[in-house]
Protein backbone atom coordinates (compact mmCIF):
# COMPACT_ATOMS: atom_id res chain seq x y z
CA UNK A 1 0.00 0.00 0.00
CA UNK A 2 1.33 3.43 -0.94
CA UNK A 3 2.02 5.95 1.78
CA UNK A 4 0.56 9.40 1.32
CA UNK A 5 2.92 12.14 2.47
CA UNK A 6 1.57 15.61 3.15
CA UNK A 7 3.29 18.35 1.14
CA UNK A 8 2.16 21.02 3.56
CA UNK A 9 4.58 20.10 6.30
CA UNK A 10 3.71 19.24 9.83
CA UNK A 11 0.99 21.55 11.13
CA UNK A 12 1.42 22.84 14.63
CA UNK A 13 -1.33 21.50 16.83
CA UNK A 14 -3.64 24.20 18.19
CA UNK A 15 -3.36 24.78 21.90
CA UNK A 16 -5.25 26.40 24.74
CA UNK A 17 -1.95 27.57 26.23
CA UNK A 18 -1.87 31.03 24.57
CA UNK A 19 -5.28 31.87 26.06
CA UNK A 20 -4.33 30.41 29.43
CA UNK A 21 -1.12 32.43 29.42
CA UNK A 22 -2.87 35.71 28.58
CA UNK A 23 -5.48 35.11 31.29
CA UNK A 24 -3.11 33.55 33.83
CA UNK A 25 -3.41 36.30 36.44
CA UNK A 26 -7.21 36.29 36.31
CA UNK A 27 -7.38 32.49 36.40
CA UNK A 28 -5.09 32.39 39.45
CA UNK A 29 -7.57 34.69 41.18
CA UNK A 30 -10.40 32.39 40.08
CA UNK A 31 -8.59 29.42 41.62
CA UNK A 32 -8.22 31.30 44.91
CA UNK A 33 -11.89 32.27 44.85
CA UNK A 34 -12.87 28.65 44.21
CA UNK A 35 -10.90 27.47 47.24
CA UNK A 36 -12.36 30.20 49.44
CA UNK A 37 -15.95 29.50 48.38
CA UNK A 38 -15.64 25.74 48.94
CA UNK A 39 -14.89 26.21 52.64
CA UNK A 40 -17.42 24.73 55.04
CA UNK A 41 -17.41 23.48 58.66
CA UNK A 42 -18.79 20.21 57.25
CA UNK A 43 -15.50 18.54 56.31
CA UNK A 44 -17.01 16.27 53.65
CA UNK A 45 -18.11 19.25 51.55
CA UNK A 46 -14.69 20.76 50.73
CA UNK A 47 -13.15 17.28 50.58
CA UNK A 48 -15.60 16.00 47.97
CA UNK A 49 -15.85 19.30 46.10
CA UNK A 50 -12.07 19.58 45.83
CA UNK A 51 -11.93 16.01 44.49
CA UNK A 52 -13.79 17.26 41.41
CA UNK A 53 -13.00 20.96 41.17
CA UNK A 54 -9.33 20.41 42.05
CA UNK A 55 -8.91 17.47 39.69
CA UNK A 56 -7.28 19.58 37.02
CA UNK A 57 -8.67 20.29 33.60
CA UNK A 58 -8.41 23.52 31.63
CA UNK A 59 -11.38 25.29 33.31
CA UNK A 60 -12.52 26.25 29.83
CA UNK A 61 -15.85 27.77 30.85
CA UNK A 62 -14.52 30.23 33.46
CA UNK A 63 -11.63 30.92 31.09
CA UNK A 64 -14.20 32.10 28.54
CA UNK A 65 -15.67 34.49 31.11
CA UNK A 66 -12.41 36.26 31.93
CA UNK A 67 -11.30 36.20 28.28
CA UNK A 68 -14.59 37.76 27.11
CA UNK A 69 -14.32 40.44 29.79
CA UNK A 70 -10.77 41.31 28.73
CA UNK A 71 -11.69 41.25 25.04
CA UNK A 72 -14.34 43.90 25.79
CA UNK A 73 -11.83 46.09 27.59
CA UNK A 74 -12.50 45.16 31.21
CA UNK A 75 -9.88 46.94 33.30
CA UNK A 76 -11.63 47.53 36.62
CA UNK A 77 -9.79 46.85 39.84
CA UNK A 78 -12.73 44.95 41.32
CA UNK A 79 -13.22 41.19 41.15
CA UNK A 80 -16.65 40.91 39.54
CA UNK A 81 -15.30 39.02 36.51
CA UNK A 82 -13.48 36.62 38.88
CA UNK A 83 -16.67 35.98 40.84
CA UNK A 84 -18.60 35.33 37.63
CA UNK A 85 -15.95 32.93 36.37
CA UNK A 86 -16.04 31.09 39.72
CA UNK A 87 -19.82 30.98 39.53
CA UNK A 88 -19.64 29.41 36.06
CA UNK A 89 -17.17 26.78 37.28
CA UNK A 90 -19.42 25.90 40.24
CA UNK A 91 -22.48 25.52 38.00
CA UNK A 92 -20.47 23.24 35.73
CA UNK A 93 -19.04 21.21 38.64
CA UNK A 94 -22.46 20.80 40.26
CA UNK A 95 -23.91 19.42 37.03
CA UNK A 96 -20.96 17.02 36.69
CA UNK A 97 -21.55 15.67 40.21
CA UNK A 98 -25.21 15.09 39.42
CA UNK A 99 -24.49 13.67 35.95
CA UNK A 100 -22.06 11.10 37.28
CA UNK A 101 -24.72 9.83 39.65
CA UNK A 102 -27.33 9.62 36.88
CA UNK A 103 -24.88 7.97 34.47
CA UNK A 104 -23.36 5.69 37.14
CA UNK A 105 -19.95 6.87 35.94
CA UNK A 106 -16.81 5.52 37.61
CA UNK A 107 -14.12 7.67 36.01
CA UNK A 108 -13.72 11.38 35.26
CA UNK A 109 -10.50 13.12 34.18
CA UNK A 110 -8.66 9.89 34.87
CA UNK A 111 -9.77 9.76 38.52
CA UNK A 112 -12.56 7.86 40.29
CA UNK A 113 -15.76 9.90 40.30
CA UNK A 114 -16.99 11.38 43.57
CA UNK A 115 -20.02 9.09 43.60
CA UNK A 116 -17.80 6.02 43.29
CA UNK A 117 -15.76 7.21 46.31
CA UNK A 118 -18.34 8.81 48.63
CA UNK A 119 -21.60 7.47 47.24
CA UNK A 120 -24.54 8.96 45.37
CA UNK A 121 -26.17 10.81 48.25
CA UNK A 122 -23.05 12.78 49.18
CA UNK A 123 -22.36 13.65 45.54
CA UNK A 124 -25.87 14.98 44.94
CA UNK A 125 -25.85 17.03 48.13
CA UNK A 126 -22.43 18.57 47.50
CA UNK A 127 -23.58 19.35 43.98
CA UNK A 128 -26.47 21.24 45.56
CA UNK A 129 -23.98 23.06 47.79
CA UNK A 130 -22.01 24.22 44.74
CA UNK A 131 -25.20 25.45 43.10
CA UNK A 132 -26.03 27.55 46.16
CA UNK A 133 -22.50 28.96 46.21
CA UNK A 134 -22.92 29.94 42.57
CA UNK A 135 -26.12 31.84 43.41
CA UNK A 136 -24.31 33.70 46.20
CA UNK A 137 -21.65 34.76 43.72
CA UNK A 138 -24.27 35.99 41.25
CA UNK A 139 -25.84 38.12 43.96
CA UNK A 140 -22.43 39.50 44.98
CA UNK A 141 -21.90 40.81 41.44
CA UNK A 142 -25.03 42.91 41.83
CA UNK A 143 -26.55 42.71 38.33
CA UNK A 144 -30.11 41.47 37.90
CA UNK A 145 -29.52 40.93 34.18
CA UNK A 146 -26.45 38.76 34.80
CA UNK A 147 -28.38 36.91 37.50
CA UNK A 148 -31.17 36.27 35.00
CA UNK A 149 -28.78 34.92 32.35
CA UNK A 150 -26.97 32.52 34.67
CA UNK A 151 -30.17 31.31 36.35
CA UNK A 152 -31.68 30.72 32.92
CA UNK A 153 -28.57 28.81 31.89
CA UNK A 154 -28.82 26.62 35.01
CA UNK A 155 -32.46 25.73 34.32
CA UNK A 156 -31.70 25.10 30.64
CA UNK A 157 -28.91 22.69 31.57
CA UNK A 158 -31.32 20.76 33.78
CA UNK A 159 -33.87 20.66 30.96
CA UNK A 160 -31.20 19.36 28.60
CA UNK A 161 -30.27 16.58 30.99
CA UNK A 162 -33.91 15.57 31.38
CA UNK A 163 -34.39 15.61 27.59
CA UNK A 164 -31.33 13.40 27.23
CA UNK A 165 -32.81 11.03 29.82
CA UNK A 166 -36.11 10.94 27.93
CA UNK A 167 -34.40 10.18 24.61
CA UNK A 168 -31.95 7.70 26.13
CA UNK A 169 -32.14 4.35 24.35
CA UNK A 170 -34.58 5.73 21.74
CA UNK A 171 -32.76 4.84 18.53
CA UNK A 172 -35.30 6.76 16.43
CA UNK A 173 -34.26 10.08 17.98
CA UNK A 174 -33.71 12.58 15.13
CA UNK A 175 -30.55 14.62 14.78
CA UNK A 176 -32.50 17.83 15.52
CA UNK A 177 -33.49 16.52 18.95
CA UNK A 178 -29.92 15.46 19.66
CA UNK A 179 -28.73 18.97 18.81
CA UNK A 180 -31.39 20.39 21.12
CA UNK A 181 -29.96 18.25 23.92
CA UNK A 182 -26.35 19.32 23.48
CA UNK A 183 -27.28 22.98 23.04
CA UNK A 184 -29.07 22.86 26.37
CA UNK A 185 -26.80 20.65 28.47
CA UNK A 186 -23.43 21.90 27.22
CA UNK A 187 -23.51 24.88 24.87
CA UNK A 188 -25.85 27.04 26.96
CA UNK A 189 -23.26 27.38 29.74
CA UNK A 190 -20.48 28.14 27.23
CA UNK A 191 -22.73 30.89 25.83
CA UNK A 192 -23.65 32.29 29.24
CA UNK A 193 -20.02 32.21 30.40
CA UNK A 194 -18.97 34.31 27.41
CA UNK A 195 -21.96 36.65 27.55
CA UNK A 196 -21.66 37.59 31.23
CA UNK A 197 -17.95 38.26 30.77
CA UNK A 198 -18.84 40.78 28.08
CA UNK A 199 -21.60 42.29 30.21
CA UNK A 200 -19.45 42.88 33.29
CA UNK A 201 -17.08 44.80 31.03
CA UNK A 202 -19.86 47.16 29.99
CA UNK A 203 -19.72 46.01 26.38
CA UNK A 204 -21.72 47.28 23.44
CA UNK A 205 -24.92 45.31 22.62
CA UNK A 206 -23.37 43.93 19.42
CA UNK A 207 -20.34 42.65 21.35
CA UNK A 208 -22.58 40.92 23.87
CA UNK A 209 -24.51 39.19 21.08
CA UNK A 210 -21.27 38.22 19.33
CA UNK A 211 -19.74 36.65 22.42
CA UNK A 212 -22.94 34.79 23.27
CA UNK A 213 -22.89 33.36 19.74
CA UNK A 214 -19.19 32.54 20.07
CA UNK A 215 -19.81 30.58 23.27
CA UNK A 216 -22.88 28.77 21.94
CA UNK A 217 -21.22 27.56 18.75
CA UNK A 218 -18.01 26.65 20.55
CA UNK A 219 -20.04 24.64 23.08
CA UNK A 220 -21.87 22.72 20.35
CA UNK A 221 -18.59 21.92 18.62
CA UNK A 222 -17.03 20.88 21.92
CA UNK A 223 -19.83 18.40 22.70
CA UNK A 224 -19.90 16.98 19.17
CA UNK A 225 -16.20 16.18 19.51
CA UNK A 226 -16.76 14.63 22.95
CA UNK A 227 -19.46 12.36 21.54
CA UNK A 228 -17.28 11.33 18.62
CA UNK A 229 -14.36 10.54 20.92
CA UNK A 230 -16.50 8.15 22.95
CA UNK A 231 -16.27 5.79 19.97
CA UNK A 232 -12.94 6.83 18.46
CA UNK A 233 -10.81 8.22 21.28
CA UNK A 234 -8.08 6.72 23.42
CA UNK A 235 -9.01 6.13 27.04
CA UNK A 236 -5.68 7.30 28.47
CA UNK A 237 -5.95 10.60 26.62
CA UNK A 238 -9.66 11.13 27.34
CA UNK A 239 -9.48 10.56 31.07
CA UNK A 240 -12.68 8.58 30.90
CA UNK A 241 -13.77 5.16 29.79
CA UNK A 242 -14.21 4.82 26.02
CA UNK A 243 -17.65 3.46 25.15
CA UNK A 244 -19.50 4.82 28.18
CA UNK A 245 -22.18 6.36 25.96
CA UNK A 246 -22.70 3.01 24.24
CA UNK A 247 -22.95 1.08 27.50
CA UNK A 248 -25.45 3.61 28.88
CA UNK A 249 -27.58 3.59 25.74
CA UNK A 250 -27.03 7.29 25.05
CA UNK A 251 -28.16 8.59 21.71
CA UNK A 252 -25.33 10.60 20.18
CA UNK A 253 -24.69 11.71 16.61
CA UNK A 254 -22.33 8.85 15.65
CA UNK A 255 -25.05 6.36 16.61
CA UNK A 256 -27.82 8.33 14.89
CA UNK A 257 -25.88 8.54 11.63
CA UNK A 258 -24.77 4.89 11.73
CA UNK A 259 -28.33 3.72 12.39
CA UNK A 260 -29.83 5.80 9.58
CA UNK A 261 -27.20 4.66 7.07
CA UNK A 262 -27.15 1.01 8.08
CA UNK A 263 -28.78 -2.03 6.56
CA UNK A 264 -31.69 -3.79 8.25
CA UNK A 265 -29.41 -6.24 10.08
CA UNK A 266 -27.29 -3.35 11.37
CA UNK A 267 -30.35 -1.50 12.60
CA UNK A 268 -31.37 -4.62 14.52
CA UNK A 269 -27.96 -4.58 16.18
CA UNK A 270 -28.52 -1.00 17.35
CA UNK A 271 -32.03 -1.80 18.57
CA UNK A 272 -30.71 -4.71 20.61
CA UNK A 273 -27.70 -2.95 22.09
CA UNK A 274 -29.11 0.56 22.57
CA UNK A 275 -32.89 0.25 22.94
CA UNK A 276 -32.94 -3.05 24.80
CA UNK A 277 -29.49 -2.54 26.32
CA UNK A 278 -28.82 -6.21 25.61
CA UNK A 279 -25.06 -6.00 25.19
CA UNK A 280 -22.65 -8.87 24.83
CA UNK A 281 -18.85 -9.12 24.74
CA UNK A 282 -17.58 -7.69 21.48
CA UNK A 283 -20.60 -5.45 20.88
CA UNK A 284 -18.68 -2.23 21.53
CA UNK A 285 -16.08 -3.23 18.96
CA UNK A 286 -18.86 -4.06 16.48
CA UNK A 287 -20.50 -0.70 17.16
CA UNK A 288 -17.18 1.06 16.53
CA UNK A 289 -16.81 -0.90 13.28
CA UNK A 290 -20.27 0.09 12.04
CA UNK A 291 -19.69 3.71 12.96
CA UNK A 292 -16.40 3.70 11.06
CA UNK A 293 -17.96 1.97 8.04
CA UNK A 294 -20.60 4.67 7.71
CA UNK A 295 -18.18 7.57 8.35
CA UNK A 296 -20.26 8.57 11.35
CA UNK A 297 -17.31 9.80 13.42
CA UNK A 298 -15.71 11.73 10.57
CA UNK A 299 -19.06 13.35 9.76
CA UNK A 300 -19.55 14.26 13.43
CA UNK A 301 -16.15 15.97 13.36
CA UNK A 302 -17.19 17.74 10.15
CA UNK A 303 -20.27 19.14 11.87
CA UNK A 304 -18.06 20.24 14.78
CA UNK A 305 -15.84 22.12 12.34
CA UNK A 306 -18.97 23.83 10.94
CA UNK A 307 -19.97 25.14 14.36
CA UNK A 308 -16.35 26.01 15.09
CA UNK A 309 -16.30 28.19 11.96
CA UNK A 310 -19.40 30.02 13.20
CA UNK A 311 -17.72 30.57 16.57
CA UNK A 312 -14.70 32.05 14.82
CA UNK A 313 -16.90 34.27 12.64
CA UNK A 314 -18.63 35.64 15.74
CA UNK A 315 -15.39 37.30 16.82
CA UNK A 316 -15.07 39.13 13.49
CA UNK A 317 -16.24 42.48 14.84
CA UNK A 318 -13.42 42.63 17.42
CA UNK A 319 -10.07 44.21 16.64
CA UNK A 320 -7.18 41.86 15.95
CA UNK A 321 -5.22 41.41 19.18
CA UNK A 322 -3.20 38.59 20.76
CA UNK A 323 -6.22 37.83 22.98
CA UNK A 324 -8.57 37.48 20.01
CA UNK A 325 -6.02 35.26 18.25
CA UNK A 326 -5.78 33.08 21.35
CA UNK A 327 -9.58 32.76 21.52
CA UNK A 328 -9.68 31.75 17.86
CA UNK A 329 -6.99 29.14 18.54
CA UNK A 330 -9.07 27.87 21.47
CA UNK A 331 -11.82 27.01 18.97
CA UNK A 332 -9.36 24.96 16.93
CA UNK A 333 -8.10 23.29 20.09
CA UNK A 334 -11.64 22.26 21.10
CA UNK A 335 -12.12 20.55 17.74
CA UNK A 336 -8.62 19.12 17.16
CA UNK A 337 -7.93 17.91 20.72
CA UNK A 338 -8.58 14.35 19.56
CA UNK A 339 -5.56 14.31 17.26
CATH topology, what is it called? Farnesyl Diphosphate Synthase
CATH homologous superfamily descriptor: Farnesyl Diphosphate Synthase
Structural class: mainly alpha
Fraction of residues in β-strands: under 5%
Description:
By secondary structure, this protein is mainly alpha-helical. The chain has one domain (17-336): Orthogonal Bundle (Farnesyl Diphosphate Synthase), CATH 1.10.600.10. Helices cover 73% and strands 1% of the residues. It is built from 17 helices and two strands. The protein has helices spanning 17-22, 24-37, 44-53, 60-71, 80-103, 114-118, 120-141, 144-167, 175-200, 205-232, 235-238, 244-248, 253-261, 264-275, 283-293, 296-314, 322-336, and strands at 107-108, 111-112.
Task: Describe what is shown at a glance.
The chain is built from 17 helices and 2 strands. The protein has 339 residues and is mostly helical.
Compile the SSE list and pairings.
Elements: H1 17-22, H2 24-37, H3 44-53, H4 60-71, H5 80-103, E1 107-108, E2 111-112, H6 114-118, H7 120-141, H8 144-167, H9 175-200, H10 205-232, H11 235-238, H12 244-248, H13 253-261, H14 264-275, H15 283-293, H16 296-314, H17 322-336
Amino acid sequence: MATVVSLEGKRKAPSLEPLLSLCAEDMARVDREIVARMRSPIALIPELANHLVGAGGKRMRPLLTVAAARLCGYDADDDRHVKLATCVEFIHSATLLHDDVVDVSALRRGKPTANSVWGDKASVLVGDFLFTRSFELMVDVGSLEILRILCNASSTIAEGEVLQLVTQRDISTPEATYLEVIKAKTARLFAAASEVGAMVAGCKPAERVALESFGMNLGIAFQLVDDALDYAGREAKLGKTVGDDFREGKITLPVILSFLRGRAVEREFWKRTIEKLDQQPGDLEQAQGLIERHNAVSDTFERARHYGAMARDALGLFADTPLKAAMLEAVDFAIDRAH
